[in-house]
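#struct-pred
JK: can someone run the complex with NDP? inputs below
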Amino acid sequence: MKTALVTGGTGGIGAAVCRRLAADGVTVAVGFRAHRAEAEALAREIGGAAVLCDVTDPAGVQKAIDNVLEKFCQLDILVCNAGVAWQGLLQEMDDGAWRGLMAADLDGVFHCCRAALPAMIRAKSGKIVTISSVWGTRGASCEAAYSAAKAGVVGLTKALAKEVGPSGITANCVAPGVIRTQMLQHLGPQDLQELAEATPLGRLGAPEEVAEAVAFFCSDAAGFITGQVLGVDGGFGV
Ligand code: NDP
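RT: done, structure tokens with the ligand placed:
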């Protein structure tokens, strides 16, 4: 039986990933920041555990990984999914907003990978999946910090794939396009319509469609695949 930690496990994509991995027989630790009750309910539903994991806090991340190892004795899969967005003109972004976004979207991936790797290296196996964005490969107007952080996630994933490949660990990245979750809540129907029209497949994506790609990277079928970025974006990034 494999064990996974999914950060941001109560969010739209995170919850879908937790459910999808559980359907594959994986024991899932649902990482949460603010939504303990939701995480506990999801953990009950899928037979996993809820684990406090604010990815901006390195000591807290270490504690979360230690908790998973204590409960399940192993960590086979790490899904770095937690993230936040910030929209606005770059010249109007203050230092706090920049640091806050980087702390969650890029530092968080670093903290989680660093804490998870010793157990994976000891086991000589492991699957790391990071969640970037189409904006990490294309660049988005009014989302420069988000694009920078998500491009950083791509770079980190590729570098890590080379670094930990000899230890039997894969590191791959999923880059979603526009997916219907809370992250889009600031957008009105007109904006959503325009984004659907800008997507070659003519619609927004569902969290479950992102979860399929994550599950693939975590499966034995992807055993010889590492350092890759898979767009799940309806063609938006082409
Ligand atoms: P949601 O807002 O639904 O979920 C985001 C999740 O991240 C929440 O569970 C949130 O927890 C968690 N989170 C935020 N900050 C932290 C933190 N410091 N520590 C731990 N958890 C944190 O958005 P999505 O499900 O859409 O986003 C998931 C990932 O997918 C993100 O990395 C996002 O950038 C990426 N993505 C999303 C796209 C989309 O169109 N939806 C497109 C491309 C990429 P809490 O609620 O407690 O803060």
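RT: quick notes.
The chain has a mean pLDDT of 98.
The first strand starts at residue 3 and ends at 6.
JK: thanks, will look after standup
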